Amino acid sequence: MFHSVFPSARGISGWIVAGLLTLAGPVQAADLTIFAAASLRTALDSVVEEWESTTGLDAAVSYAGSSALARQIAEGAPADIFISANVGWMDHVAALGLVKQGTRVDILSSSLVLIAPGAEGTPIPITQGLNLAGMLDGGKLAMALVDAVPAGIYGKAALTGLGLWDSVAEQVAQADNARAALALVATGEAPLGVVYATDANAEPRVHVVGTFPAESYPPIIYPAAIIADGNVATATEFMTMLRGDIADEIFAAEGFTVLE
User: Fold this and answer.
1) Options 3.30.470.20, 3.30.70.20, 3.40.190.10, 3.40.50.10860; which CATH number does 110-216 get?
2) Which residues are annotated as a binding site?
3) How far is CA 97 from CA 36, 83, 226, 232, in A?
4) pLDDT one-digit tens code per residue, 17-41
5) Residue 87 contacts residue 224 (beta carbons within 8 Å)
6) Residues within the annotated binding site for molybdate?
7) pTM reported for the whole predicted model
8) Superfamily (CATH H level) for 6-109+221-258
């Protein structure tokens, strides 16, 4: 059975939710080690289970912000596959010569939404005139780290593009990854959050307040690649399934757009 390593969100301490994950290493040896963006957790866990049942092999999946994972790979952490939530951190790993040539592929896309606690609510348009600061009513806006983690980078870009960032910047509670930001809203510790639509889809304790216009932020792309000094043969087998029909159906069911 595969091992999923993932941090739990803590309460808001000051304005930064930090230290959720200092090392995204597997809990024990496995046939395959995958470092993956935290926002992939629900769907990728299902893909890995399918792969294990088909091959009889074991996988360990380490989830965190793409920035943390990329830095750990750069520092020599053992990984066979890296799946990032944006191209920039994959570019960083590739520039260090750590990606096996010819294995990198863009596999998924997603979108950004504004969420609130509770199972349902009336959707509103997210536009330049949105009184987001007023909606917070003195509370915090949960986001992933806005200068490092893809979900936070995309979120800040969207808010900036809509002219909303300056009005809420001082109220942002930053978390180490997208799922930690999601947890702050799900538990009611933050009244609003900016996350991927796929994160909102995976958490029944939140609802989507509105969807950010696609033109307000760069395209959200998830690239995957095999690490050059990893278990290339087994990683290649997994990458084949990752691009196959079963995985496509799982990702689509979680709200991802599958890239061909």
Assistant:
1) 3.40.190.10
2) 39, 66, 151, 196
3) 19, 16, 12, 15
4) 333 333 444 445 789 999 999 999 9
5) no
6) 39, 66, 151, 196
7) 0.84
8) Periplasmic binding protein-like II (3.40.190.10)
